[in-house]
Task: inverse folding
């Protein structure tokens, strides 16, 4: 049966699939057949020649449990040995590795395209590399995509069931050794949380590399604030050659504004049900993926699990040669049975950023945050706009206007010794609004150098003028600017998952503000690994707008709902504070 939740979904016509052998890659024209790709062959200009002979099973039909047929491409090493298969589950076009949109994207990021063979599905493993090392790669078109039947859905139980069915079909193929794994970044990562939680019997291990895990909290309503713009960008990928429909999350945001709707409940992953080994990759810098990845890591049910927190954007990380080699060690151990010492890998490896070229990476730990990290409160002083270790005895409100510059307030502290923060920060704000009944609050923790300059760090290779333009007030996934958080005041109700360290919200009610009502907002901030030297300054910005900007170039960010004046209280019974995870070391007691 088709998943019952589809009855609750809102659908729109899919976008047209242009089957010209260009728009969706040189290998996209539909035909079920077997092709031999020869070592040294160039799939398209600008890509890497193939490193081995590959058997391509093109447009292979796979029937799902409800009778819908999807189509997949499978790349196989030419060998008599049975091989495991890596699965790249997403709506991004199984043959689109040479599509102009992806070539242009990687050129814009400064990566170029020479790092892959052109067989690489967007955000997926390169079949040329993996076939060379004894693996098959499966690139499916999800239901409703291109020539696959059915209507496209976007994360949740339908995708989870379809992924389960594909895994079990792959495990029955004569060329396979019965072992499968899920891998890839972004959409190919967050689909893993849902599929693996279904516990397909032949799923052996997973490698989620930065992916959200809650359609409401991580994508549509971050902090309870709606943002349709990036979703519209994602949904353009839902193209069909069969007249399929596509689930329209922008319509669903209007129809179901609260998270307790069955539709949004279906889009909450449950990593506690995942029991296979997991190699999880995260960063502090991806404003779309960071929070969901860390949340999934915390609840992951796998007994064998590893977390690596890197200091780049996910694509440069995933396709880096040394990182690919390390991923192969993980897969070799579980999928090929090679005794290569993988279990001795530290459970956690985190990064400590300094934003000045001196990042420390792969710092080993048994947990995240590390055991030596302790939460410490820094209270806001409204008179001096400073942060201090004890609260002021009396309240001094700080007022700023939503429709006038600067539309923000900030507080600073300068360190007298080297200080490291690793873990989960948050803020508690006692705040009211004058002239309206709600407010959207945006928080940003910055690092300033000894001269007072705000520091940030590109996480992609291109640092050119165009990317400077895009990332100055936007494209936040490409340039790390510090820990951040946001919350709509009327959506402030905490749910049962909330802790003092990590606030979490039910988003199941709207509690508008009354005149002169002071509310306390617990705002969860993105995980942090940041170092400060003596003389450097931490600044926390509390704003009426998203100062980091949109996630990617060319896409607007969320539109805040703010009017009137925001009044932040900073002492006495209303002692607002920033809570930070301080590493206790010999230099930092």
Result:
């Amino acid at each position: 049966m088709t998943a019952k939740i589809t009855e609750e979904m809102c659908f729109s016509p899919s976008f047209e699939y242009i089957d010209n052998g260009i728009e969706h890659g040189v290998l996209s024209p539909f035909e079920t057949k077997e092709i031999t790709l020869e070592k040294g062959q160039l799939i398209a200009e600008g890509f890497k020649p193939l490193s081995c002979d590959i058997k391509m099973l093109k447009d292979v039909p796979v029937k799902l449990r409800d009778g819908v047929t999807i189509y997949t491409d499978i790349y196989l090493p030419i060998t008599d040995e049975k091989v495991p298969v890596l699965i790249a589950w997403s709506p991004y076009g199984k043959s689109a590795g040479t599509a102009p949109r992806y070539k242009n994207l990687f050129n814009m990021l400064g990566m170029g395209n020479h790092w892959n063979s052109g067989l690489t599905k967007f955000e997926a493993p390169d079949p040329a590399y993996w076939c060379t090392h004894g693996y098959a790669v499966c690139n499916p078109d999800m239901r409703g995509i291109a020539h696959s039947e059915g209507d496209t859905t976007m994360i949740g139980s339908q995708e989870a069931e379809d992924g389960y069915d594909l895994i079990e079909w792959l495990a029955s193929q004569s060329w396979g050794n019965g072992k499968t794994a899920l891998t890839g970044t972004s959409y190919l990562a967050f689909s893993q949380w849902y599929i693996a939680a279904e516990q397909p019997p032949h799923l052996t291990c997973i490698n989620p590399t930065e992916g959200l895990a809650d359609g409401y909290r991580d994508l549509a309503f971050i902090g309870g604030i709606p943002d349709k713009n990036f979703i519209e960008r994602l949904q353009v990928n839902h193209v069909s050659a069969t007249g399929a429909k596509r689930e329209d999350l922008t319509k669903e945001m209007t129809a179901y504004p609260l998270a307790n709707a069955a539709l949004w409940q279906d889009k909450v992953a449950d990593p506690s049900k995942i029991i296979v080994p997991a190699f999880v990759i995260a960063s502090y810098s991806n404003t779309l993926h960071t929070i969901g990845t860390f949340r999934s890591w915390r609840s992951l049910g796998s007994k064998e699990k590893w977390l690596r927190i890197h200091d780049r954007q996910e694509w440069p990380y995933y396709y880096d040669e040394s990182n690919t080699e390390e991923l192969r060690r993980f897969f070799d151990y579980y999928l090929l049975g090679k005794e290569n010492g993988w279990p001795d890998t530290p459970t956690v490896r985190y990064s400590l950023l300094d934003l000045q070229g001196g990042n420390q990476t792969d710092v080993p730990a048994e947990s995240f945050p590390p055991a030596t990290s302790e939460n410490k409160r820094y209270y806001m002083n409204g008179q001096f706009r400073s942060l201090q270790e004890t609260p002021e005895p009396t309240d001094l409100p700080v007022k700023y206007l939503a429709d006038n510059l600067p539309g923000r307030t900030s507080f600073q502290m300068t360190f007298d010794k080297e200080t490291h923060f690793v873990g989960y920060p948050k803020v508690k704000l006692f705040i009211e609004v004058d002239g309206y009944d709600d407010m959207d609050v945006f928080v940003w923790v910055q690092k300033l150098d000894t001269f007072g300059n705000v520091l940030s760090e590109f996480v992609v290779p291109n640092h050119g003028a165009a990317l400077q333009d895009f990332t100055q007030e936007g494209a936040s996934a490409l340039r790390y600017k510090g820990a951040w958080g946001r919350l709509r005041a009327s959506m402030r109700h905490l749910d049962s998952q909330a802790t003092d360290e990590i606030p979490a919200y039910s988003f199941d009610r709207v509690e508008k503000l009354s005149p002169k009502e002071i509310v306390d907002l617990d705002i969860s901030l993105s995980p942090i690994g940041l170092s400060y030297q003596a003389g450097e300054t931490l600044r926390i910005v509390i704003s009426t707008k998203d100062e980091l900007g949109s996630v990617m170039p060319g896409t607007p960010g969320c539109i805040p709902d703010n009017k009137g004046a925001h009044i932040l209280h900073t002492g006495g019974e209303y002692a607002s504070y920033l809570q930070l995870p301080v590493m206790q070391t010999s230099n930092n007691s």
About this structure: The chain is about 15% helix and 30% strand. The chain has a mean pLDDT of 96.
